[in-house]
């Protein structure tokens, strides 16, 4: 499903609007019941002829309406930003329904990832290390606020279920006198069945900065998660 607009090429709000419109039009022409099934969502036809797809995204239940094109967050939650709306639409457009690979892959290992790696490094990996590297355990606390699950990787590792078939792993290694702190954001190796590479950068950046904001707000004060 080739698109003339990739997210990394869209610096202006009006171009985001075009990208959203293109993705929505592609979905309108598709089998929406099949799109919902392959994306791990749910499908609801309405008596008025409208179709709705429900989808879980970063702890929010979203409701997408067709043909109208509305995307609403349920239970009184705030709407998601336009850039994330595009990501969700691309996910539904691309989803194959393939099972998870069960193997974590770095961004550089993903086909096409090398081209976007400098952007990924700056916006995702470096930001994770900068804000959590000196005290990796704070990652557990921040992720607990977002229903993250602990992972027995690195000095602190968490799994964030971003979309039904797209988990992320955030991992940190503590620095010492010899080596600086290190970290990474990993994807299940099946991620290319669900997201274009440029959207992977957007998703990883969204998750990392969501946790940074939790940490900076001082809200995560609970006991760190226990590894299982």
Descriptive report:
37% of the residues lie in helices and 22% in strands. By secondary structure, it is of the alpha+beta class. Strand 8 and strand 9 form a beta hairpin. It is elongated and about 65 Å long. The N and C termini lie far apart (39 Å). The N terminus and C terminus are likely disordered.
Fraction in beta strands: 15-25%
- Calculate Rg over CA atoms: 18 Å
The count of strands amounts to 9
The coarse silhouette is elongated
- The H/E string reads HHEEEEHEHHEEEEH
- Give the helix tally: 6
Helix percent reads 25-40%
Give the distance, in angstroms, between the N- and C-terminal Cα atoms: 39 Å
Structural class: alpha+beta
| Major sheet size, sense and barrel closure | 5 strands, antiparallel
Strand order of the largest sheet: 5-9-8-7-6
Ranges where pLDDT stays below 50 over 5 or more residues in a row are 1-10, 219-228
Number of domains: 2
Mean pLDDT: 89
What keywords describe this structure?
single chain, 228 residues, alpha+beta, 2 domains, five-stranded antiparallel sheet, four-stranded antiparallel sheet, disordered N terminus, disordered C terminus
What would you say about this model in short?
By secondary structure, this protein is an alpha+beta fold. It has helices at residues 13-28, 32-38, 82-94, 113-132, 137-144, 197-217; strands spanning 42-45, 51-57, 60-66, 71-73, 104-106, 149-151, 156-163, 166-173, 182-188.
